[in-house]
Amino acid sequence: LVRLRARLARSQSVFGQGLLSLLAADKLDDDAWDEIEDTLITADVGVTSAAQIVDNLRTKVKVHGGRTPEEVRDMLRAELIAHIDPDMDRGVRTEPHGDRPAVVMIVGVNGTGKTTTTGKLARVLVGDGRSVVLGAADTFRAAAADQLETWGGRVGAPVIRKDEGADPASVAFDAVARGVDDHVDTVIVDTAGRLHTKTGLMDELGKVKRVVEKKSQVDEVLLVLDATTGQNGMRQARVFAEAVNITGIVLTKLDGTAKGGIIIQVQRELGVPVKLVGLGEGPDDLAPFDPETFVDAILS
Ligand code: GDP
């Protein structure tokens, strides 16, 4: 929590502290409420959620009458937590099925942090005493497989790779086959993030999924989203969500943005939970996402 607070220090400026100071104004007239709504939209909360949050807060303020700073903070806290939906299941399924490994597919646009997230997730699992195999299914860039190999060496997980230009699905197949042969707990497949056409993406990820299912099953498809890319990132997320059945979101680079509101927007639009957040480039900078901890961090 301390680390999350420190890492989110920059987010406090716009999103959390900005809202708190606006809500603390003596007179909350229409202009003030508009400004609060604008702040929420600027923080990437999304237009629909911003309007709802303002409506709910307005009603509460009306009912409440006098407002102490503590009351304002509690109201905002409750409202934000409700919008982040504390009841969503945020567990990442990495438990093997008998003698077959769990398989996690990591998808998303290049540069969002897929390979880094694959490495960090492997680190968490290996740290918990699990065995992990990594599949370098981004075969379009040799550098991507090199980068994953560096991570594999760092965290102690073998990396299955092929030559540049090889079929991504065949890499995924080999990684899962290795996982089955070696009685590994979890296989993580780092996929290519080429956002050519929706059908191209659908074909490619669909094929990876099908070959995995010849040997085991796909337990998670985690979409990696760069929190600093705002509405552009949201557009990319929609394309992926239409192309493949996403089970969770990893929001990376939350340490580098003042706009953590994207969490509310992406969950609302895609209907899947943010399960993990990236808070830096290092191996230990991946955290499970917890709505209350997050809201407390941006309001502290
Ligand atoms: P990929 O192309 O999607 O596989 O993206 P990479 O994993 O290569 O990451 C792209 C860049 O983002 C690298 O420089 C990473 O170190 C950096 N990166 C990834 N996750 C985070 C994060 O949570 N915070 C920060 N600050 N940088 C990150």
Features:
8-stranded mixed β-sheet; 300 residues; binds guanosine-5'-diphosphate; alpha/beta; 53% helix; 8 strands; membrane; transmembrane; cell membrane
Proportion of strand residues: 5-15%
Amino-to-carboxy terminus distance = 11 Å
Oligomer: single chain
Taking all Cα atoms into account, the compactness measure Rg is: 21 Å
Helix content: 40-55%
**How large is the count of helical segments?**
12
Give a written overview of the molecule.
- This protein has helices at 2-7, 9-23, 30-42, 47-64, 69-84, 114-127, 142-155, 168-181, 198-215, 230-243, 262-270, 291-299; strands at 102-107, 132-137, 159-160, 186-191, 217-226, 248-252, 274-278, 286-288.
- By secondary structure, it is of the alpha/beta class.
- An eight-stranded mixed sheet has the order 3-2-4-1-5-6-7-8, sandwiched between helices.
- Strand 7 (274-278) and strand 8 (286-288) form a beta hairpin.
- Helix 2 runs antiparallel to helix 3 and helix 2 crosses helix 12 (291-299).
- The longest helix has 18 residues, at 47-64.
- The N and C termini lie close together (11 Å).
- The model has no long low-confidence stretch (mean pLDDT 91).
- The structure holds guanosine-5'-diphosphate (GDP).
- Guanosine-5'-diphosphate binds at residues 108, 110-116, 147, 193, 252-253, 255-256, 278-281, 285.
